[in-house]
Design a protein that fits this description.
The complex is a heterodimer of chains A (125) and B (179). Chain A has 5 helices and no strands. Chain A is an all-alpha fold and 125 residues long. Chain B has 179 residues and is mainly α. Chain B has one domain: Four Helix Bundle (Hemerythrin (Met), subunit A) (Up-down Bundle), CATH 1.20.120.1200. Chain B is 74% helix and 2% strand. A two-stranded antiparallel ribbon of chain B has the order 1-2. In chain B, a hairpin with a 2-residue loop joins strand 1 and strand 2. In chain B, helix 1 packs antiparallel against helix 2. About 4% of the residues of chain B have low confidence. Classes of the chains: A mainly alpha (125), B mainly alpha (179).
């Protein structure tokens, strides 16, 4: 049963949550509590922070996120293909066809990357 | 293990816990007054769905769920919040402006899902009771992609290409007005 293989993942998640909770509760119980304005200020590498952290970011970031999403989906397709290609190596024609399939798939997306590159979207100005 | 006379397996406990996480965080997505926290709870909801996929023996689907939905889509939503000035500044209270329409939409969605679930052929109907016995793993998906569904598979790359070009076009339009 496959779900049993994921028991380790479940145990890992539970141990992770318990570890963080125990650490935070223990430090809450044992630490001295003596706040002042200086201590409560957001720590920003020793600098005094300017303005709130909740401000508008540059739109330029969004293109990177979109392109990342697209290539993430591409990776989701490549992963099963790579795992199954080993099984295909028994019959040569199937293996060659499998590789051609993926070359076309990646080629079409590479076209998009070249387009984005040419248009200068990937440059940080 | 038996509780109140019912025989309860670890599988059922895992299902209840995962379903609870999924539904609870989904409710928090709707109820959180702060949209940033709502977005983070959406990530937890999607993670719970990934756990449910694991219980259904679809480990590959779970991996894709974590990679694309938890990893990329949630990041995109959070970035979209970062980029929109108003959502970050003002306390963005989520309110139902038209309860009748909201209930109607939710009801239609429920009926649609209920019909789908009721008409689906579940593994339980084919195999022995208990968790799924069939392999819905990487190899099954890859074989389907490379043999009967080669054309849709290649078409997917064209769809992704269109999305990529669309992103570039939108980004180009934003260029002059950028700070």
């Amino acid at each position: 049963m496959l779900a049993k293989d994921f028991l380790a993942v479940g145990v890992f998640i539970i141990v992770g949550i318990v570890f963080v909770a125990v650490t935070l509760i223990a430090s809450y119980l044992f630490r001295p509590y003596n706040p002042s304005g200086e201590k409560l200020r957001t720590y920003e590498c020793g600098e005094i922070p300017l303005g709130p952290a909740w401000l508008q970011f540059r739109v330029g970031y969004y293109v990177y996120a979109l392109i990342f999403l697209i290539f993430d989906v591409e990776a989701a397709f490549i992963f099963p293909w790579a795992a199954a290609l080993l099984g295909f190596s028994r019959t040569k024609t199937l293996a060659v066809l499998g590789i051609i399939d993926m070359v076309i798939f990646v080629g079409v997306l590479a076209l998009g990357l070249v387009y984005a590159w040419k248009k200068g979207v990937l440059e940080w100005k | 293990m038996a509780i109140l006379g019912f025989e309860i397996t670890g599988y059922q406990i895992a299902f209840v816990v995962l379903a609870g996480i999924t539904l609870g965080s989904a409710a928090l997505v709707v109820l959180m007054p702060n949209i940033m926290r709502a977005a983070l709870f959406l990530g937890l909801t999607l993670l719970g769905v990934a756990g449910l996929y694991v219980l259904m023996n679809a480990a590959f689907l779970a991996a894709v769920q974590v990679m694309i939905y938890v990893g990329a889509v949630t990041t995109m939503i959070i970035l979209a919040i970062f980029l929109s000035h108003r959502l970050m500044q003002v306390g963005f209270a989520q309110a139902i402006h038209n309860p009748v329409f909201a209930f109607a939409a939710a009801g239609v969605m429920f009926i649609f899902l209920f019909i789908t679930v009721a008409n689906s052929l579940w593994v339980r109907d084919i195999c022995a009771p208990g968790p799924a016995n069939t392999d819905v793993g990487v190899h099954a998906v890859a074989n389907a992609l490379l043999q009967p569904y080669v054309f849709p598979f290649e078409l997917a790359s064209v769809v992704l290409l269109v999305a990529l070009v669309g992103a570039v076009v939108i980004a180009k339009e934003d260029r002059p007005g950028e700070p």
